[in-house]
Design brief:
By secondary structure, the protein is mostly helical. 71% of the residues lie in helices and 0% in strands. The longest helix has 24 residues.
Length: 203
């Protein structure tokens, strides 16, 4: 008689496979994530992931949802640090948070012709508040720095927030083929923006 896993054991195995999938994506990129590669990474039978997840789309959806929630938390923590470091350094940190996420690549790589996954990702982005974060996080941060006197009072925080967010999001969405500055050049540009926004004589 074959024993069945308890719900708790199934949930633990599911969490373990998700963790292995995250490690695989982190090391080799979203394109490397297949159910067979996941089984190899986890050291389990090839068919096991198919017993835990209905299909690859369900696994990808789980990974994207976790990443969207992580991004939202990272943006909130970043915005709360207004007043520390320099404005340019903080803008650079924001860019790195956004550019280092695998969520868009996971979705693009695996959601082609998968309308259910695409809809699920869009719904999670709304539920997590991430879309609202894209709209307001940088603006809210700049306004906080303005109240602290680290950005001049005549700066239009909403305008700069929109432009900075849009520029970085475009680099994320456009992919590596789109003309882009390297990391050092982007850091220099964002540092220059931070200096431009600061009162004369500020560090």
């Amino acid at each position: 008689m074959v024993s069945r896993r308890s719900p708790e054991e199934t949930q633990e195995l599911r969490a373990s496979l998700i963790g292995h999938a995250q490690q695989l994506v982190e090391r080799h990129g979203p394109q490397a994530l297949t159910m067979r590669a996941l089984a190899t990474e986890a050291g389990c039978a090839v068919g096991l992931p198919y017993k835990i997840f209905a299909n690859r789309g369900e696994l990808i959806g789980e990974l994207v949802h976790l990443e969207l929630s992580r991004l939202r938390a990272a943006f909130d923590a970043w915005a709360a640090e207004a007043g520390s470091r320099t404005v340019g350094e903080n803008l650079t940190r924001y860019a790195r948070i956004l550019l280092e996420t695998h969520a868009p690549s996971l979705t693009v790589t695996h959601a082609i012709n998968d309308t259910a996954l695409t809809a699920s990702v869009a719904a999670q982005a709304h539920r997590s508040g991430l879309l609202r974060s894209f709209e307001s996080t940088v603006t809210d941060y700049l306004l906080a720095e303005q109240r602290l006197g680290r950005i001049t009072t005549d700066v239009d925080a909403q305008a700069y927030g929109f432009l900075i967010t849009g520029a970085i999001h475009n680099l994320l969405a456009a992919g590596e083929a789109y003309p882009r500055p390297n990391r050092a050049e982007l850091d220099r540009m964002l540092s220059a923006v931070g200096r431009h926004l600061a009162p004369t004589g500020a560090p």
